[in-house]
Amino acid sequence: MSYSFGPRRGIVVHIAEELKSAHSPLTDDELSQFEFLDLVYRSLCAILYNYVPGSGHPGGSISSGRMVQAILFDSLDYDVSNPDTAGADIISYAAGHKALGLYAMWALRNEIMRIGQGERDLLPKEERFQFRLEDLLGFRRNPTNNTPLFKKFRARALDGHPTPATPFVRLSTGASGVGLASSLGLALGALDLYRDDPPRVHIIEGEGGMTPGRVAEALAAAGTMNLRTAFLHVDWNQASIDSNRVCRDGSQPGDYVQWDPVEICYLHDWNVVVVPDGKDFRQVLAAQRRALAINNGQPTAIVYRTVKGWQYGIEGRSSHGAGHRLCSAGFMAAVFPLAAASGTRLPECRADDIRCGGNDPVIIEECYWDALKVVREALEKNKAVVSKLADRLAAARERLKKRDRKVRPNAPRLGVIYDQKQVDPRKVPDELVLKPNTKITVREAFGNVLNHLNKLSGGAVLAAAADLLGSTSVSNTAKGFPEGFLSFGQNPDARLLSIGGICEDAISGVLSGLATYGGHIGAGSSYGAFMAPLGHIAARLHGIGNEARRHLVPGEPFKTFILVCAHAGLKTGEDGPTHADPQPLQILQENFPKGVMITLTPWAPEEMWPLVVTALQKRPAILSVFVTRPVEKVADHAVARIAPAGDTVTGVYALRRADSARKRDGTIVLQESGVTYGFIEDALPLIDKAGLNLNMFCVSSAELFDLLPPEEQQKIFPEELAREAMGITGFTLPTLYRWVQSDRGRAASLHPFMKGHYLGSGQAAAVLKEAGLDGESQFKAIEKYVRG
Asked: Quick check: 786 and 777 in contact, CB under 8 A?
């Protein structure tokens, strides 16, 4: 049997071959300008590592420098005077460990604008949107830093990896592979809003950062969706922390993976432009211009062969997260070419000098600032070159202005979802009203809520699932829109995303970036057993990014994406303990800073509209919704004498309160759909028959309750009740600790692991009975608690 590879939609371009028969993209004068720019940049990288020793990655920052300089000064259509200009191209550092280089480049660009702008007002008018040379004094400094120059210059406290506290940075990156997935989410959001002339997203990554599995998932999604506005710039230097042979290189096997970046991108239907010498500015600029000219609808990767730590004096893996010792001869040699070329003089410094050999942070800061001023002096002495580089930034702004990009007329209108006049959590739309005793799944009710919001907003909700669109009912989100998966080449108005198949990692990463762009909510669904842990990293970075953005724009609302933890709880019993896992809520609930994450644990389908809308309008960065699989009966709240479903919006609410005219027998706290249905349908009639006088509370969202004013919290669920309560949960016991605070109450509480083992497989009723969480077992435990 023979096998042949089928044709790809992407193409491979060898830029060195094309340059043989083409004009150089740079004149000799332009080339000298870029060479000067890179000399200053490499020197600045060396200075940052020297005076903040042990911090950052000088090698990769240096090897990626030329591709980034070409993007910022030649390829990008953006407004340097306004980081938030609508429709501008984006540069995104998926390789978050190159933050040292990002900060050096941003400060260098700011100096070029300041010195070379003339009358053109290139600098942002508000200082908070600038990134000054002085801000480098805050590299890897905590906001509590108290050194004199840090305070004098109001320097930014710069994170060790990029965050949106820095202008022109959209995402928090650093966890390997998440930055690429979320950057592709930015491209997805931009392309869906601006169809005719969409902003391009330029993504910086290295081959080592492409080794995580979530990268292959994300590459597959971009190739499949025809994400033509994504441009991946790969710094292929073959060096990681432990290896100088990360990938296969020709016939030489790699230490880690047996592909090279060209192969893996082309395999996933990307165009690839191969740059054999990433140190050659002519090849670099020619490659970027060629990439922008490709018009076949596919995303494009530009793969540059580079040398990690080039011209730094330490190359390869030794420069990955390490560099020269403080003020050593190696450091001096690395920055000497700048001093020689510019006629400047470095501060006098010897390794045994107290100014550098000591550990006094004030003295080191003074030395650091002296070195930064050498960079400023070098730029000011070369004002003619700097002015020409500033011309390029001015041209980028003019290109963007000339493009005059417009959001398409029928684009999604996300703001509608947050307009309480149009979307009221207390007013259930007619088509979503559920009649008592009818049957529906909680997951279907949730999907119907998303669909209603999607129709109102003109398609602002995009949904993805780990090959479970119908099974988890998240496919309902797209009813009324074109069927099938979104493809910008074939089916651009579909609202379902094909993200790599069974790929919770990439789903959460892509949807976090989609939300960050600002025009959409992404909802990604899988079994809660998998979505909660695998989505946690992207969710955490998204939360960090949203919080960091508020340092730049105080009070800006968070941008929400939804982790759908579907098939949650023990009623997914036939799948057994691998899938019916009680643990996911503990990973997420009350595990983020206040307001960043909201978890929802509804018990009934009729809770979905008020609960989901209330949570969305609180504007969390992440909304995690736990929904179950089985068909349930819509409760008749009046007959059962329990509170209306709308009371769920407070996060904790009384299903029924004890009769104040009688002695109270105790307080029960319920959490999770399966156990609450068991309580309502089976235990509650027995409680009423026995004449027990109990408070009965349900937890629908710990975080929504936390967002209430303290006095309202105390009114709904006083602390005294927590000290007497027992709990019943389909999740883990620690998720009840907030509501059940006594040792006696916790000992009386029911939870899936109370018998000390994972539960077996079978129908829902059998698994609940094995756990001791069926209604009859609940009643017996409540009786025992009351007697106690």
From this structure: no
